[in-house]
Amino acid sequence: MAPIVYKYSCILFSLVILHSLSQFAHSRTYNEKKPCKRFVLYYHDILYNGTDAANATSAATTKPTKLGNFTHGMLVVFDDPMTKDHHLLSPPVARAQGFYFYDMKTQYNAWFSFTLVFNSTEHKGTINIMGADMMREETRDLSVVGGTGDFFMARGICTIRTDTLQGDFYFRLQMDIKFYECY
User: Looking at residues 111-135, what average pLDDT do you find?
Assistant: First the structure.
């Protein structure tokens, strides 16, 4: 009889612990309207045009397909400077390293996946961002899916807005980064 009581006692104890842990995990509240950390950065992308390798920060690694008229299928890999203001020549506070590809046949639309790499006296660590860039929208939200260092396990939203577009070879995005989960 004692082994059965011991077995059920262990099961009951395990259930109590699991219930307590689930209550703790759900006890954290998130305020969608008020981020726990927020900052604005500017992303500068200079696409290699075949002649300006010294200044280019990104390059197409595939050519567009012949599907549609919107560079469908073109993949671009980048290592772009991030600044606190909209000036390209301002000191970079981070580097955006990753890729985007054009994924719509009927209009311009891209999908981004990149890491912001910080290595300064102000911040150390990374922020991982990914999602669809619906270019025709004034603002678009990408997901902040994680981070390291000063941004350990960060979660939130990166709202982007096209700040400048100069032909096919330079664009600047304003990135309003809001964390709703900070540790």
Answer: 94
Torsion angles phi and psi, residue 18, rounded to 5: -60, -40
Residues contacting 101, CB < 8 A, separation 6+: 62, 73, 74, 75, 76, 110, 111
Both 82 and 94 in a single domain? Answer: yes
Q: 130 and 53 in one domain?
A: yes
Amino acid occupying residue 34: K
User: Which among 62, 161, 177, 54 has a CA at the least distance from the CA of 118?
Assistant: 177
Say yes or no: 84 and 161 in one domain: yes
Contact 130, 147 (CB under 8 A): no
Please tell me whether the overall predicted TM-score, pTM, comes out greater than 0.85 for this model.
Answer: no
Q: What confidence tens digit (pLDDT) does each residue in 57-77 have?
A: 999 999 888 887 778 889 999
65, 21: one domain = no
Helix or strand run (H / E) with residue 115: strand 110-119
146: domain CATH number is 2.40.480.10
Residues 134, 145: Cα–Cα separation, whole Å: 19
Q: What are phi and psi of 117, to 5 degrees?
A: -105, 115
Residues 9 and 50 in one domain: no
